[in-house]
Amino acid sequence: MLVEGHPSRMAFSNLPDGEALPQAGAIIVSLSRFTKEREALLARAEPVGVRLETGESPEALGADVQRLELIVLHVPYLKDGRAFSWARLLRTRLGYQGELRVSGHVLRDQIAFYARVGVDSFELPQAVPAAEVEAARSEISHVYQPSVDGQVTIRELRARRAPRS
Amino acid sequence: MYRYDEFDAQLVRERAEQFRGQVARRLSGDLTEDEFKPLRLMNGLYLQLHSYMLRIAIPYGTLSARQVRKLAHIARVYDRGYGHFTTRQNLQLHWAQLPKVPDMLVELAEVEMHCMQTSGNCVRNITADHFAGAAADEIEDPRILSEIVRQWSTLHPEFSFLPRKFKIAVSGSAADRAAILVHDIGIQIVRNTHGEIGYRVTVGGGLGRSPFIGHEVGSFVAKTDILAFLEAVMRVYNESGRRDNIHKARIKILVHQIGPEEMRRRVEREFAEIRKSGTLELPEAEIARIAAYFAPPRFEELADESVELEAATRKNAGFADWLKTNVHAHKMPGYAIATVSLKRIGDTPGDCSSDQMDALADLMEEFGQAEIRVTHEQNLVLPHLRKRDLFALWQKLVPLGLASSNHGLVTDIICCPGLDYCDLANARSINIAQNIAQRFADLERQHNLGELKIKISGCINACGHHHVGHIGILGVDRKGVENYQILLGGSGAEDASLGEILGPGFDSEGIVDAVENVVGTYERLRQSGERFLDTYRRVGPTPFKDRLYAR
């Protein structure tokens, strides 16, 4: 199922390596395919997304991230936390503005963390009611660390409140 | 000490409720044990041999009397009336029941405590020098930075699913009482040639099955930059640390494989970028705000010598013994620091009963101690005592079984819970500690032997720090039989070194004789004023090997 922080701009379909490029439709390809067929993929009229395996740093995409509509970070196992850093890297150093999705073994309990590092859509292994997702994101009201989501930190809240005696 | 404001308080309450939801989903079957495991671990809950174990965070080992009483209460009501202080300055309750754990967390939240990140592959409880704020050689109280780092690392969105656990320790002095060089990150507060205070950061130390001493990655990190620097180290680790093999997943292995030079290069690159963004710059005002919580208590102006103390010392030999080992120099004249030993001969090292905790809370109030400290050597410390009160305090510690005069001596043994509790263990360790302590029970001999640190682990994960024991003991399983190896020459202090395995192991009875023989060899070879460690470093392993394995 797809849970979206903001509406997905388009329905993408996964294109397995080795399958011919379709004439039309938004597609998601692997990093290796993107690297090999970059010219042809970017020349298509319709959007392209790239799926990164957990061991693949988005730095491999370089400036091309600006031309992608979707990046999917695939998480094979919930304890593999590299995608948290990849998401952050995409949203900071690489300046990626498009849709950023995680897929694979993602728990409801990780949604808030992923949202904080810039992920805005989730492909979860099993259906989670929208209300649950909302609950998962608001269980902890305030945060200590600044992150790419721009949430006001506890330190900033302290500074805002009435002056201390 | 630090006090929660409304934001800190709300966070721990919400975290307790979040965990209540996770427990409910586990009990209803919505979560598999595989999925629940990383969630419960991030909240300090282990499943051990006989029961769940709840590990309660004691940030930088500092507790108020109110917190000590609450811990006594929780141990009494929800557990078996005692707790176990650990080498991470935490408290473990070994008989917790899963459905009750959320209520325990709510009780802890009432006294500004929690179990967040006492386990799991995240940044663990920040540890610091247990003499913080009292030691004469201190540049700055290490708990100020520790609290700043605690807040920054709490529920960090990017670093809650690291390749492996991550331990940070802070020392405010050149003398290292926090074992910073055997931590994933060690921070030493230093002063540069301009008189400014900053941080020397070492990375990649650790014990476990592959022990390493940390490498310097930042020689002088400015105070306002420290979070940016730590975040840079963490990011390099999260991206590049190994995830294919749990035994090679700590940052020490990454540093070892790419080399400290390359580690420095990668950290510098991240650091430069984070610093440019400015988001993690620590405002001076925030440092000052936190520092105010750790302002020293109002000390009286006292003469350094105490007539009462001298008189009591002359009259009472038992007290004089305690004074020699368990009382330490304080930065203020007329004051002293005292170690409350949790190593009474025959007891489990680090265990403390609810009744003892309550009594200690009373003594804290009676003797004007706003705080008590937990040491990584599994003892407690009363940090700001008037010298003239020491005798009265000692008299009250004696009937509580808390006045053993053995701090730093052969019976002040660090010991993990071992196979009596832990499902990772290969061998028991508590009984070995008890038997060695019994063998060396004679106090005169202990004092004569001087500083001698024995550290025992019941498996290769090294919770008992055996690599850095002057005498380290590692329990292994040899074809279903407990077997104990001896390592000599380790140190976790500023002169950090890793012990070397001496030779084949011993059975659970033989190990006590082996330790006796090692100690006897030292007694034979030592020169005047030499500690065990000094003698070992001078003569090397051969005489000890000859004594233990000669045919």
Overview in brief:
The complex is a heterodimer of chains A (165) and B (551). By secondary structure, chain A is α/β, with parallel strands linked by helices. Chain A contains six helices and seven strands.
Task: Give keywords.
heterodimer, A: 165 residues, alpha/beta, TIM Barrel, seven-stranded mixed β-sheet, 6 helices, 7 strands, B: 551 residues, alpha+beta, Sulfite Reductase Hemoprotein, domain 2, Sulfite Reductase Hemoprotein, domain 1, 4 domains, five-stranded antiparallel β-sheet, 38% helix, 17% strand
Q: How would you explain this protein's 3D organization?
A:
The complex is a heterodimer of chains A (165) and B (551). With 165 residues, chain A is of the alpha/beta class. Chain A has one domain: Alpha-Beta Barrel (TIM Barrel), CATH 3.20.20.70. Chain A contains 6 helices and 7 strands; from the N terminus they run βββααββαβαβαα. Chain A has helices at residues 31-36, 38-43, 82-91, 111-116, 130-138, 154-160; strands at residues 2-4, 12-14, 26-30, 48-52, 70-75, 99-104, 121-123. Chain A has a 7-stranded mixed sheet. Chain B is of the alpha+beta class and 551 residues long. Chain B folds into 4 domains: 6-110, Sulfite Reductase Hemoprotein, domain 2 (Alpha-Beta Complex); 134-292, Sulfite Reductase Hemoprotein, domain 1; 307-400, Sulfite Reductase Hemoprotein, domain 2, CATH 3.90.480; 414-549, 2-Layer Sandwich (Sulfite Reductase Hemoprotein, domain 1), CATH 3.30.413.10. Chain B has helices spanning 6-28, 33-41, 65-78, 101-110, 142-153, 226-240, 251-258, 260-277, 284-293, 307-315, 317-326, 354-366, 390-397, 430-439, 443-449, 510-525, 532-539, 542-549; strands at residues 45-47, 52-56, 62-63, 82-85, 91-96, 127-128, 168-171, 185-191, 197-203, 215-222, 327-329, 335-340, 351-353, 372-374, 380-386, 414-415, 454-457, 471-478, 481-488, 500-501. In chain B, the strands form 4 sheets. Chain B has a 5-stranded antiparallel sheet. In chain B, strands 3-14-15-12-11 form a 5-stranded antiparallel sheet. In chain B, helix 3 packs antiparallel against helix 12, helix 10 crosses helix 11 (317-326) and helix 16 (510-525) crosses helix 17. The longest helix of chain B has 23 residues, at 6-28. Chain A binds chain B through residues 57, 78-82, 84-86, 88, 92-93, 107, 109-110, 112-114, 116-117, 139-147, 154-155, 157-158, and chain B through 5, 7-8, 10-11, 14-15, 17-18, 21-22, 35, 38-39, 121, 151-152, 154-163, 235, 238-239, 243, 273, 277, 279-280, 286, 289.
